[in-house]
Every structure is written in structure tokens, then in C-alpha cells.
Amino acid sequence: MDRFSILHISDLHRSIANHISNDEIINSLMEDIDTCAKEGTPKPSFVVVSGDIILGSTQPQEDKAIDEIKKQYKEADELLNDLCKAFLSGNKERMIIVPGNHDVCHWISRRSMEMCSMPADETEKLNEMKEMIKSMDDENGTIRWSWEDFSFHKIVDLPLYNMRLNEFISFYNNFYEGQQIYKELREEQFTTHDFPEYGTTFVGFNSCYMLDHYNKTGRINRDCINRAIRNMRSSQFTNRLKIAVWHHNTSGHPHESDYMCSDILLPLVNAGFSIGLHGHKHISDIYNDYVQAGMDKKMTLISAGSLCAGEKQYRFAIPRMYNIIEKYGNRLYIKVRSSTHKEHLLWEKYRNIDYIPLPLISDDSIMDEDLLPLINARDYAGILDKLSRIDESRMRFRELWLECYFELIMFDEYSDLIGKPENDEAAVKLMTLAAKKQDRVLFDVTLENQIDAELITPSTLKIINEIGRGI
User: Fold this and answer.
1) If I label 382, which of 4, 7, 145, 210 is the partner at 20 to 30 A Cα–Cα?
2) CATH assignment at residue 63
3) Are both 117 and 85 inside the same structural domain?
4) Residue 237: is it exposed, middle or buried by C-beta count within 10 angstroms (0-12/13-18/19+)?
5) Nearest-CA neighbor of 400 among 329, 449, 452?
6) Phi then psi for 319, rounded to 5 degrees?
7) E-strand stretches of 329-429
8) What is the DSSP string of 166-198?
9) pLDDT 10s digits, 11-60
10) DSSP helix/strand/coil, 132
11) Are 356 and 341 in contact (CB under 8 A)?
């Protein structure tokens, strides 16, 4: 399927104390998505939940903390089940869930650590501190620094420490009822969601595997990434649009440490993952410039704001937010929706982002030894020759035909196939191609006969007029 949309939500922070109920969340989303559908955006085929399912507990007593967390996950389970019924016809396989920092149980990490005793001798103490600081950079390090008491702490009970996500794992496995299984081993904490009919595969990652009450930095286990990549090398996933999902943002202010280093993503970019969905920083944003040095590969990073965090949880002057991500051919269109009301969810347009290109991807049914090299080499003439010998290819692979016509500046063929553009992006692309012909009469005739002013926005008409000035 060449066109579909993703409902991207994050940082739910579900809690009994949150005055925004599950019913209000569902009702507000249904109303708003109906509004977007009237504007031409298809209703969601998938729901991505990029972490912080619950608020978490600060209860000092273990039994009270466990009880509070279980109640929060019960609230979250009811919400996500209702979301599945409302948008996915109850199909949980089309919901992708990953953990966030609020899903990590701090009372477990506190119990698993002890304060490090230091030598009395100042020289020995300094040397010991240097070694501890050095070990903190180790991916499997057990030393933590506490700004609370200005001392080092060590993980002394690793099996207990590794149970920090157990409540999330229990929630996850109960929610999916065996359709997806979340593993306890950190190198196995990735989930694969493949949809061949959409030519798309989502892979969910845990960016909290080293996170605890002292260490706020996000990180995805290196072995976990390599296992996921090796799994994706199967022929089952040939020619898929690959989307990675995790929780943490990949940049922060100099005084912050609660984000994930973007270098962790390099193996995923190299393996062909072109979209990354995350949350954590409570604001929706898009970065389309994450490029691996020396290679023609990049990953578009899309963050979702907090859907329904309580007033204390969302940052100053930043509203609650969520995204609708539409894939149409080899393009992405993103609608960022926001609610500025403190007491209720009243969604409205925050901003729309268009024209984010995706890698040129074709259908598996025509992937053979002749076509794959042509697509990888961007040999558009060769692709057209191959497509012309495939039955009904202009209908089945319309976007691929259009891409080739555009790159080869075949205006007449492109114009005949696209007809009257039905959205802003298609209109701009048609007129851009007309301008490339450097024919003023052709440009003006196309604008008059093929562009319906009622279907596109005034800002797009302004863009088209700017394009025409270059002729």
C-alpha cells in the first residue's frame, strides 16, 4: 500500500492522579483525526507509542511503589486497548510500544546499589576515583555517581538491577497476549513488526537499558542493535521502508545528560533505517539532516511531544502534542497537533511539515536481479524500461513511474499520469517540473489548466509563482 498514516504518540505518563481521563484522550483524538481526515489525511493504519507509558512512583516503601506502578499500568493498558479499538479495529499487531525512562523502577535500582567506600589516603583515594570515573564510560560499567551525596555507588546485585523493567515487561506481554514478546535480556530487547502489504517494517528498541536513578543518559545496547540488523538481513525484509522506534532524543543542552548520543544510531542508518521515531523531550520536532559521513544514507528523526502528561510533567510554555505522519509514495507529510488548554485536550494545528523525501523503494513482487541494481544506482531510464514490461505497472507502481518521469524531466508523461494535483506537494512538484522545461507558455498553461486553486493553499500558490520567476 503506497499511502498510509501513523498516529505517533509519546510520554503518556499515565497515573490515577492525572485529571485527564482515558475517555477524554480517546474522544479528543477521534474528533481531531476526523478533522484531519476531512482535510485529506488518511486515518491511522498504525499507532506508535514511543515510551513513558506511566508516570512511575516515588514511594519510598517497596510495596506501595509496586502497587502504584501496577495501577498506572492498568490505566495505560485500558487506554491503549481503547486506542486499538478506535483506530486499528482492535488489531494490536499494528501498535508499536517501547519503554521510556519513567518505565524504569527506581526503587529496584536503589536496592541494587551500595555506596563505595574510599581509601583514607588522599593519593590512593584520587587514584581510585580516576579509575571509577574511567569505568563509568564502560557500556557494562557498574559504577554510578550521585550528585545527591557527592559519592560513587556500585551495582552490587546485578540480577536485581536487571529487573528494573520487569513491570513494563509484564504490562507489554499481557497487552499483546503472545502476539509480541518482550525479552528480559538487554541484548534481546528489540521487537520487529513487519507489514509486507505496506512495504514497511518497524523495529522497537529499549533506549533505557543503562538508565537508573543516578544515570539519566539514554542508550541502546550495542549487541541489541546488531541482532536487530542481522534479523533484518533476512530476505523477508527485502526492500522494506525501515522505521526504528525508541524513547530518548539525540541532543540536549550543555547542562543536560538525559539524552542519547546520536552516534548510537549510525549502524541503523548504515543498515537502511530511514526514519526514527522517539519522544522524551515533550515537544514534537523533525530533523531531516542526520547524515552518515561519506555515505548517501540518512535517517529522518521525528519526535512526538507529550500526549497527556500532567501539568507538572510538561515543560514550561510547551503544550501537549502528538503527530500524524503520512507516507504517500516516497514522501512524508507530518501534522503536529497541539493542545494548549491546561484542563482539557482541545487539539488544533501546531504546524505541518511537507516534502521530506524517502529512499526510492519499489515493490517486492518486481524485485529481481535486473531491477534492484537499477534502483540502487538511480538509473531512472533503466527503471522505466523494466517497468514498461510489467503488466499494470502504471497503476501498481504509479509513484515509481512519477519519480522516474520527474528525474528525467519527462513533463508530458508526468503531466498525463498525475492529472490534476490533489494536494499542495503534488502541485508544487508538477510546476517545478514545468519550470525545468524553461518554457514560459508551458508553465502558464499548466498553471491555468491543471492547478485547482480551491485544492491548494495560498502559500503554495505563492511558492508556485516564485518557481515561475526563474523561467
Assistant:
1) 4
2) 3.60.21.10
3) no
4) middle
5) 329
6) -75, 170
7) 331-339, 348-357
8) HHHHHHHHHHHTTSS---SSGGG-EEEEEEGGG
9) 999 998 888 999 999 999 999 999 999 988 999 999 999 999 999 998 87
10) helix
11) no
